[in-house]
Amino acid sequence: MKGNMMIFASLCLLLFCMVPVNSKPIRSTPQVANPIALDMAVNSVDDMNFGCTETMMDKVTKEYFQKERAAWQMDTDVNRCIEKNSKAKALTRYHIEAICAYTSDRVYKSFNEEVRTKRGDYGSSFQFHSLHFLLTSAIQISNNNYYCQTVYRRTRVEFTGEVNQIIRFGQFASSSLKTNLVNFGKKTCFKIETCSGAFLGNYSVFSHEAEVLIPPYEMFNITEKITDQSEVKMQGLEDCEVVYVLKSVGGKSNLNCKVVNLMRVQ
């Protein structure tokens, strides 16, 4: 499928388908000096593989997985996570390895940096085709009914955005069903209605985090920007400096099935 793919909330047939309490925060947004503008993340690797999942799975398992797996930096925690979930029925072992690697935090930073910025390299020198596909597929399988839920995301970074602006995170955004995972920060917080994100549960290395993983292609409307501390407290995020309230408005994929389409023209 070529061109942009727009998906709105009414298209429920689409297979659209978090922030630790231990001493070391994981999967947190890296601190930066300047504010980050919330936008549509136009340079994102946002392939949702709609209409080409089986072909892409074959490409991943036969080519990308073995070539790219070393970059996942598997360690003891990851291997323990994989074995813990070895009898999972809904997901394949490939999916489980991807989730365990991502939630261990060893590859999170470099992976999401590429997902946010390497649109032009996707299908060629992008380093994480297999991890990107398997996380996307796992999210879609785990939330195949397009179930909407309210989740929370904390950061140490100042984000800027305006009410009624449509945005994407443009990366795999870790969020949580919990409001009190303060180790992730309080500079900018998000209260998010996601309809594409999936609850990872016991698949995560840190299952106590109650993580919901949001894919890069999901779009959100900023419905509120809350700075008044009494109103912030009402959101359950009383220590946050600012809270953006986001509502899912579907998804947008600029790279839908790009790898498969490249295969077809070769």
From TrEMBL:
<dbReference type="GO" id="GO:0016779">
    <property type="term" value="F:nucleotidyltransferase activity"/>
</dbReference>
<keyword id="KW-0328">Glycosyltransferase</keyword>
<keyword id="KW-0548">Nucleotidyltransferase</keyword>
<protein>
    <recommendedName>
        <fullName>NAD(P)(+)--arginine ADP-ribosyltransferase</fullName>
        <ecNumber>2.4.2.31</ecNumber>
    </recommendedName>
</protein>
<dbReference type="GO" id="GO:0106274">
    <property type="term" value="F:NAD+-protein-arginine ADP-ribosyltransferase activity"/>
</dbReference>
<dbReference type="Pfam" id="PF01129">
    <property type="entry name" value="ART"/>
</dbReference>
<feature type="signal peptide">
    <location>
        <begin position="1"/>
        <end position="23"/>
    </location>
</feature>
<keyword id="KW-0808">Transferase</keyword>
<keyword id="KW-0520">NAD</keyword>
<keyword id="KW-0521">NADP</keyword>
<dbReference type="InterPro" id="IPR050999">
    <property type="entry name" value="ADP-ribosyltransferase_ARG"/>
</dbReference>
<comment type="similarity">
    <text>Belongs to the Arg-specific ADP-ribosyltransferase family.</text>
</comment>
<keyword id="KW-1015">Disulfide bond</keyword>
<dbReference type="InterPro" id="IPR000768">
    <property type="entry name" value="ART"/>
</dbReference>
<keyword id="KW-0732">Signal</keyword>
<dbReference type="GO" id="GO:0003950">
    <property type="term" value="F:NAD+ poly-ADP-ribosyltransferase activity"/>
</dbReference>
